[in-house]
Write a structure and sequence with these properties.
globular, single chain
């Protein structure tokens, strides 16, 4: 119990430092490059609470299922396969992890819109009528855990992640870290775009359309690679346009306490 408490304190301190760094980056960006004038400070305490909750709880909950996936894959696949995977150059490992993980996250995210049971949790993330960087972690923990499972299970099952993965599990760790940090940018209240790169890597404008309250709904599910949306027919990025409004449509019912 003491060890667990100490670990929790250390993780909380680490997250507090990260929060300070993120605030130092995004608060000035949203002040000087604001897309819209807005005031969400009444929700600040709630958003900060969800930031810590959704940074701590999923990590605790995902350990056991990931260990189970690794154990099963080790029984089903021959040792030669894992030795082959471990021999990949780091660049190839990174590419494989990001591509497979992104496809998994895409479908996990898309399923949260398609299945009513999952939508009840995911609707928490879409409830705010304004976007800023902290909306990235304004979500229900069940939603976070489910989506991460969809992206991480294939990686652990294929030997690309886990304690036995090559390079000390570095590619999978980078996928989660980079994806999380990029998520804060995608939700930021900033008016700049990435130009032609918006078709290569997800931008704030790309993801803001995903939060549009009006039509078209259920577009732009990818977290970093818009090409995945193109592949599966869910890409939407009108030239130089931004959504007019955000939040839940009138018929998208949710009674979550987190709203």
């Amino acid at each position: 119990m003491t060890k667990l408490l100490l670990s929790l304190v250390v993780d909380t301190v680490r997250l507090t430092i990260w929060l300070a760094i993120l605030a130092a980056i995004f608060v000035p960006l949203e002040r000087f490059f604001a897309l819209r004038e807005q005031n969400r400070r009444l929700d600040l305490v709630q958003d900060l609470g969800l930031y810590f909750l959704n940074s701590l709880l999923p990590a605790l909950l995902l350990g056991t299922p990931m260990a189970f996936v690794v154990a099963v894959s080790r029984q089903m696949l021959p040792p030669e396969y894992f030795a082959w995977i471990a021999g990949f150059p780091l660049a190839l490992q990174l590419a494989a992890v990001f591509l497979i993980g992104e496809v998994g996250f895409y479908w996990g995210h898309r399923l949260t819109h398609a299945w009513p049971f999952l939508w009840r949790f995911h609707a928490v993330h879409h409830a705010p009528g304004q976007l800023d960087w902290l909306i990235n972690t304004h979500a229900h923990p069940v939603d976070i855990v489910f989506t991460r499972l969809c992206g991480l299970v294939p990686l652990y099952a294929l030997g690309l992640a886990g304690s036995h993965a090559a390079e000390g599990n570095l590619p999978a760790i980078l996928l989660v870290i980079v994806g999380t940090i990029w998520g804060f940018l995608l939700h930021a209240n900033v008016r700049f775009s990435l130009g032609p790169l918006e078709h290569v890597i997800a931008s704030p404008r790309f993801h803001h359309w995903h939060h549009s309250r009006s039509e078209p709904l259920d577009r732009n599910f990818a977290s970093m690679l818009p090409s995945i949306d193109r592949l599966f027919g869910t890409f939407h990025l009108p030239t130089s346009k931004w959504p007019n409004d955000y939040g839940l449509a009138d018929d998208a019912a949710t009674q979550s306490d987190f709203r």
